[in-house]
Amino acid sequence: MERNYAEYAAAKAVELIGIDSPTGYTKEAASWVKEAFSSLGFPAEITKKGGVLIDLGGNDADDALLLEAHADTLGAMVAEIKGNGRLRVTPLGGMRAENGEAENVRVRTRGGRVISGTLQLVNASVHVNGAYGDTKRSFDTTEVVLDEDVNDAAGVRALGIEVGDAVCFDPRALITESGYIKSRFLDDKLSVGILLGLAKYMKDGGIVPERKVFVHVTVYEEVGHGGAGPVPAGVTEAISVDMGCVGEGLTCTEKTVSICAKDSGGPYSYEVVGKLIDAAKKEGASYAVDVYPHYGSDVEATLSSGADIRHGLIGSGVYASHGYERSHIEGVFNTLKVLKGYLNI
User: Fold this and answer.
1) pTM for the full predicted model
2) Among 111, 203, 221, 280, which residue is least crowded by beta carbons within 10 Å?
């Protein structure tokens, strides 16, 4: 496999990152995913739950593989329209106020308006607030300041904003000359890009895998039930393609593919983990095997919903998870190599 497929994957990920999709507000992103796979010639359909199920083809339908990634991201929701014309928000998924403070946001109303603002500490001026540095950041001590001339709740409602509207954080995506990919929400739109890179590789080479392969791009992973959805008949294994963790006590870097042996949900299939390691060795991929202390994946939700399958988890290394994240083209390339080796294509 040539490195250009990793570059394609990263570019498609950046495109998808540009589409707001906090959990619960994912329709536009799902439509983009469906079209992206369909344009490569692979049948794709929107599930009732709002995810995308794609058929990558293959011969052995009784030993099928399901690859899972997710297009929903962290974000927030309007929880209260305050009397001063500002918004108290509640997080979607593991979004943290410390990471969102001073970030530009977009409030998306049910009427279709997009209104910009910024998440700020309440009383955010250092020259005024003597307790600025001592205030614990939370979604009770921060607020969205709208870029509109409003100073009461009635003015906010006149803009069309109501409780329950989606609040989307600016991802600030970029790819550096040195190959680093920096953005919010690489978790997990980078992996959606990786699966598109795999699909393009298969299309360009006219490759039909030995076993049937499906992709499920889910839209509720950040709240824990994304993978609890349709599992096509014949699937015996499912692999989450999500971010690999980079941090103290782990060996993964942004340039490697991480193979997770265990996370907060318990161990992954010993057999599948072993085969993933063998695939990495066969393809010459730089890899790490790690245990993630605070992590859960789509495939665990699939198992919890009753699927009788073996499971695994891999992903390009991502630093600063759930913040302003960073990965690298080499990590993307190594993840693609492992998928290629696992499918023997």
Assistant:
1) 0.97
2) 111
